[in-house]
Known about the structure:
Number of domains: 3
Largest sheet: 7 strands, mixed
Strand content: 25-35%
CATH class of the largest domain: Alpha Beta
Shape: globular
Amino acid sequence: MEKFDVTVIGSGPGGYVAAIRCAQLGMKTALIEKYPSLGGTCLNVGCIPSKALLDSTEHYHKAVHQFADHGIEVKNVKVDLPKMIERKRGVVKATVAGIDYLMKKNKITVLAGHGSFVNKNTIEITKADGNKEQIESAKTIIATGSKPASLPGIEIDKKRIITSTEALELQEIPKHMIIIGGGVIGLELGSVYARLGAKVSVVEFMDSIIATMDRGLGKELQRLLKKDLGFEFYLKHKVTGVSAKAKEVTVSADNDKGEKVELKGDYCLVAVGRKTYTENLGLDKAGVKVDNRGRIETDEHLKTNVDNIYAIGDVIKGAMLAHKAEEEGVFVAETIAGQKPHINYNLIPGVVYTWPEVASVGFTEEQLKEQGKKYKVGSFPFKASGRARASMDTDGFVKVLADEATDEILGVHMIGPRCADMIAEGVVAMEYRASAEDIARMSHAHPTFTENMKEACLDATAKRPIHL
């Protein structure tokens, strides 16, 4: 039986990053993956393919709706959806190949098959052909991620009633896609098909879309998706049933007044979040405890109740984000090596890759009010930005929340062009506990979208934005 210092179960962003960091720190490392390709949900059926389709459809949408304003005449613009999907597959293939290379480069042993515990130090790998092998591991990191969640009574047939996985492989543009859930996944994939001409209806139980983010962002995104892409929103609606025929789906819901609402379309995308994936891992044989939601319980070092087993990413509490899992992978590797790493969970940014993009880090206004914290607000609209006017991306704003007494930045919330990249400045500022004045006094290149961050900080610290 081969012995390893560390074995990682699951090769998503958390797992493969943990494996690389363990190998860098001199540990003999194994990585177990049940699927044919490495990279987990994120690389294969999540972050990477969805961004590929978002980029492709954004090009198409601009060609149809904006190129003429730029003085570019294009006629008979057509969508070749199968080719678009094929390009997406190519992006995934290249990215996965990059992970394969990194495993070889770092001399990590990749074991293909389903890993499960025999006991806390022995792991059995069941291969696709049914053959089994066992390894011994001094330490194990569980990084098996999550899978799409559903609602009671909804049967996902993967044809008309689908999850994000199937939505990434459609070979036709839906006439009417009904999306259950107004969160990140539903709005991103809804944007993909709305840009291509589909009617999109979003049914959401809460009174706001992207409800975990600052309410101002959800309100603005809802307005823009309705204006630019024709989204319909059914907020405060509880789904009571979904049925499918050959080419039609029917979604039944109750609104907040108790009235029955029925929507008919040709596809229903169930996007109500994700649930922890720990099935058939043999956690009971290793003695690992889970909470009432099936998540693995860990301490502040991400160690389970079993002293040599750790867990990271979507299988533990916290936001289900690839970059959170990556940070935790590095954290655990360095903890095992005897170092003292640190993660500030309040400073893990959240992003929605619609257009305009939405990004947020730190506390929301709602959270600060709940804490009774006195704060200042500074904001700056993209319509006042020269760079935004030049690129015709004038929707949205940057909002900065700062401590009323100390001026320390407590939260940064933005919706607009390239906010997914811009939010990094907010993360850096808050990691170093910068004040709004610190950022306001820093030189920002002109013309850039990031000048909005400077102007919002000027507004927060002294109510004196220059360009507004």
